[in-house]
Write a structure and sequence with these properties.
Elements (H helix, E strand, L loop, with lengths): L2 H10 L3 H11 L11 H10 L4 H6 L5 H11 L4 H13 L4 H6 L9 H12 L3 H14 L6 H10 L5 H17 L1 H9 L5 H12 L6 H8 L5
Helix pairs in contact: 3-5, 5-6, 8-9, 9-11, 10-11, 11-12, 11-13, 13-14
Amino acid sequence: MEYSAFVHELYALREEEFAVFQEKIIRPRALKIIGVRTPALRKLVKKYRRETDALFSFPDEYYETVFLRLNVAALLPYTEFLSRLDACVHSIENWALCDAFKPRCLERHTDDFLPYIEKYLLGGEFSQRFSLVTLLSFYMKEEYLPVIFDALQRCDTAFYYTYMGAAWLLAEVLVKFYEEGKTFLQKNLLDVRTHNKAIQKARESFRLTAAQKEQLSGLKRR
């Protein structure tokens, strides 16, 4: 598969107004956006799922190229996925790519993958967000709450997208494990901004009762 032909195929699916919309909401840092809708990209993931080597040889030029690379990698068996993981995380430069990257193989390897959660939690903004979003996607179980709470305390929420990922993760804990999440909040272990954003996001959920939302409101900090 040649890169030029691949890019030509992407441009054939381009919607200019959608590209403008994506630029506004994703705010890519270096990547260019062609403007291919996600359902069309998903079809291309299926088409090119056997073209892993080619996708990893392509430059980090377009959002769509990196999206396909990450989502094809997400279909790999666990051992092969690990061999591609550093390259995957390195190419994540915005929240949309990060949040769409959900490796299926982790469902059967949650304990095995914990050292990698730790590794990427020590990295930069989107490396940390990858760890947090992975915890949200695959570790939202009572047995992993200590791991989640530890990650929340150690991530660097001075980074905007790390902060938002941490708040999202804690909000989901509050929805699924309300008492445990509330107890964690009451310890005031997080910075005020992340603490309050997690409460806000949890209170926006229809899965909490009015009484629970009122309790959370009382835990806001100044």
